[in-house]
Write a structure and sequence with these properties.
Pfam families: AraC_binding, HTH_18
Order of helices and strands: HEEEEEEEEHEHHHHHHHHHH
Organism: Paenibacillus polysaccharolyticus
Radius of gyration: 26 Å
CATH architecture of the largest domain: Sandwich
Domain HTH araC/xylS-type: 165-264
CATH superfamily of the largest domain: Regulatory protein AraC
Protein name: AraC-type DNA-binding protein
Shape: elongated
Strand content: 15-25%
CATH topology of the largest domain: Jelly Rolls
CATH class of the largest domain: Mainly Beta
InterPro entries: AraC-bd, Homeodomain-like_sf, HTH-like, HTH_AraC, HTH_AraC-typ_CS, Tscrpt_reg_AraC-type_HTH
Number of helices: 12
Length: 278
């Protein structure tokens, strides 16, 4: 197998390994364990999965997953053998993503999906060894899993919706846009304006607009400390089209002008260099 399939960068995320289609026949597997995750979708027919001391009889539209290092045994119904598609995947984030669904080691099966999942499995197989094909395979795997997350969300997902976290995340991903507004954040979170404001204030001690400014100033400090960018470039990089206005906001927040803050940090670096501090 090409090293692209298991290089360090891909192993740190979630990556496609292989997939296939099993036509109607009497194929069975196990008892045994796999090293990776293997998600199966039954197109038609019936079969049985045995794992963790449980027996699950499955039919058309249902799914089951094999977890790494968990003993399993699965086989078709002799009178009505199943036909299924499957996909193998792994990576550091694989478990976390599977946890967003109702699948678990204790309950590795899912009922019939509201629509057929077969086509998404077929798309995911379309992979090769070139960097572009590898990237597309991983993307199609994530697309497939996104439908499982949508159709079969975990209880944690359905019971909790952290609007404050969603608002903070949106701000931290979009602070650099000068056009970012509170109204845009309210729309992104899909929550009534005054309710979000109250929840945000209770959780952070700050208003939404104050948090936006704090996020921008925090990033500006990082750039002033570590980059050789001009003040104008830094201003644009954190969402301010007017460098003079940026300077006023920065000074109000830090008691320093951007130039003074940059010089102060450079002096600290120089001082540490001469004293041998690291």
């Amino acid at each position: 197998m090409d090293t692209l399939w298991r290089d360090g960068g891909r192993a740190n995320q979630i990556f496609f390994i292989s997939g296939g289609h099993k036509p109607v026949n009497l194929h069975q597997w196990g008892p045994g364990v796999r090293d990776v995750y293997a998600l199966h979708y039954i197109i038609r027919g019936q079969g049985t999965l045995e794992t963790g001391g449980q027996h699950y009889r499955l039919g058309a539209g249902e799914s089951f997953i094999i977890f790494p290092q968990k003993e399993i045994y699965y086989y078709p119904d002799p009178a009505d053998p199943w036909e299924y598609v499957w996909i193998e995947f792994d990576g550091r984030d694989a478990g976390r993503i599977v946890d967003l669904t109702q699948l678990s080691v204790k309950h590795p099966v899912l009922p019939a999906a509201p629509e057929t999942m077969e086509m998404w499995f077929h798309l995911a197989w379309n992979a090769g060894a070139s960097p572009s094909e590898v990237l597309r395979a991983d993307a199609r795997l994530q697309l497939l899993l996104s439908y499982y997350i949508e159709f079969f969300p975990s209880e944690k997902q359905t019971e909790t919706r952290d609007e404050v976290w969603m608002a903070k995340t949106y701000i931290e991903q979009n602070y650099w846009q000068s056009s970012l507004t509170v109204a845009e954040i309210v729309q992104a979170v899909n929550l009534e304006r005054s309710y979000l404001f109250r929840k945000f204030k209770e959780a952070t001690g700050e208003s939404v607009s104050t948090y936006i400014t704090a996020c921008r100033i925090r990033r500006a400090c990082e750039l002033l400390e570590s980059s050789q960018l001009s003040i104008q470039s830094i201003a644009y990089s954190v969402g301010y089209n007017d460098p003079l206005y940026f300077s006023r906001v920065f000074k109000k927040a830090t008691s320093y002008t951007p130039s003074a803050y940059m010089m102060l940090h450079q002096k600290k670096i120089t001082s540490n260099t001469f004293t041998g501090d690291v």
